[in-house]
What does this fold into?
Amino acid sequence: MSSLSANVSGPILWQTRAGYSFASIGLSAIELMLQVYLLELYIIAGLEPSLAGLAIATAVIWDAVSDPAMGILSDKTPASSVKGKRVPYLIAGAGIIGFAFYFLFNPPSNTEQSSLFSNLLIWYLVVNTAMTLFSVPHLSVINDLSNTEQERATFFGWRIVAGSVGLLLGIGLPAYLAFQFDSSLISDTIKLRGTSGFAIGGIATIGCLISSLAIWHSLKNKESSNAFDPANSYHPFKVLKQSVRSPFFLMLVLGFIAIAVGRSFNSSLALPYYKTTLKLSEEQIGVILLVLTLFIIIAAPLWVHFSRKHGKARLFFVAVMSLAVLSAVMYPNLPSKTLWPVLLLAGTGGILVASIVLLESLFSDLVEEEKSRQVKDVSGVYYGIWRMLSKVARALGIACSGLYLSLIGYEQGSLAQSPSIERSIAWAFGPGVAVFLAIGGLCIFRTRHYQHQPSKT
It folds into this structure.
């Protein structure tokens, strides 16, 4: 194990891991609402789909660019200057997230294109900046707290569980609130999203503050052992240069990008597909997403368990290719106004989607290897690059979905579409997404040949 790891005395208490993971509840709920509801919200509010996709993609790209910068900044903050060098950034991000998310999910009643576009762009920029301030240091601090690979794995496990609870919150709260509104009316749907944004934004801020305090409490007596020699600092461009020379890194990130684009494209089209093509209600959609998330929670530990015997890359390849085939075959052929086949598919899909934990674990293994090889604290910049790539992929997926809806003639501000548009959405939601998943799966499968090989010099 690298000498750069935190020199924590004794085993890490479960309270520390639980406190650390608490932020993931609110953050996951926010991420789900951004991916599933944001594009649809502004389209039904009257914004042209292509303009909505452009605003969202612009904000996400800014977020992506800022991630590595935040990672570098948190790496290079002198550990002796604060009780945990990443904690001030955590608190700053936590303080901004809640109110910015509320304003983002409350579009102006004025249906002028410029007004809706400006509100979406400005507040999404603020939300993403707050997420960057918090999320990059929050990921990086795992390496500050952990002594061993097993300890690091437990932090990721707690994070996944808390994130799944957050997904349930992001699904369940809007579904519960839907009973208070008439989802057949556009005005009530917009109010529903705004109320959900207020509640989830507040929960996210509280959860992030609790997590920040838990991290500060754990690190406050370990500053001297976790300090880094300034002479051992790194040049960001040299780290990036070395990373792109690693075949394992390249295959891993290419696969991740392809899968992330597919997931984002899928999430952005979910509501148009379920509402327009399958003619399902808001409450039924909530039940579908609830079943999906429950199966993700159940299956995630099983993927980790079986990966010890079969290997992470090989097992992930089997899961993601199975998901691609299932999506391509089933989604274009589901009957409308019938819930039970969709629930069956959601349960099966949830089991396969849970395999994403293997992809995250593969990247964390890479970060540990690079820390040991370079003898430098590079966890912040690597996690920043990882989040940057995820944001770029998400922006591409959302932009593609907005452009696709415009190209097929999707009518903004309307809950009813022509049969040809309904069919086009189904084909994009199924086979269209499956193409991205298959490409990503093949790239991840190839990482088996390069793992543990040194970067080219």
Observations:
- The CA atoms of residues 232 and 376 lie 6 Å apart.
- The longest helix spans residues 186-219.
- Confidence is low (pLDDT under 50) at residues 1-9, 223-232.
- The chain is about 75% helix and 0% strand.
